[in-house]
Design brief:
This protein has helices at about 15-40, 50-70, 70-100, 110-140, 140-160, 165-195, 200-230, 230-250. By secondary structure, the chain is mainly α.
Amino acid sequence: MYPANFGISGENPELLAMRYSFISVGIWWISFSQYTFYFLPDQNEKKKIIKDVIWNGFRELNEVWNELKKIILIKKYLIAFFIYSSALQTVLLIAAYFGEQEINWPKDEKTIGLIVSILLIQLIAMFGAIMTSKLSEKFGNIHTLILLNIIWALLCVGGYFITEPIEFYIAAAFVGLVMGGIQALSRSTFSKMIPNTENTTSYFSFYDVSQKVSIVFGMTLFAFVDQITGSMRTSILVFIFIFLLGAFLLKRIKIKNY
């Protein structure tokens, strides 16, 4: 936003600054990945890459699915997770787009406002995750997830009415507060439910695929309602019911210490 402060000049300094920012991200990831490369053990033997490697992942997912179908508890949880994750991930993905299209930004402040909002969400998410862990210790994972889904539904209600930047900042702060918590707690809850196995990677791969498919479902639903009604705000209202449905499905999971 302020390329001159970093000595960047030229015909399009903002564009050049953006390109430099991508380089900085690459350097960041290369630097921090070195710890993994040099210090974490490599337990895999050197093997040739054969055509079966393409289908092995699908075979593992199918094996996990056949095992999970026999475990009623995990089936119920994954269905609930798929439902509320479709709303959660969609809201996170379209948040900046919603802010760009629906908020009355002052002239020349839209871009910086959206950047500040995204940073606000990420920073507050750290504290939200800590707060959520404290709540789960006291009330259990399932009850905390139910509470978080209800809060997300309320945020969608608020999102329908916000029009001014200050309101968008406040909404972003609350989104950050519950975003990190619900994602971390969802993973930890699933980890408690999977059976004793040495192949936890396949189970979490299945969990991750479920999340990715839920994104496709949520984004498709959002786009469909948006096209039919011509309003992003109406699309957000649909997710109120999805979060409440997720809370209802979680409530049906009866298990102690979770």
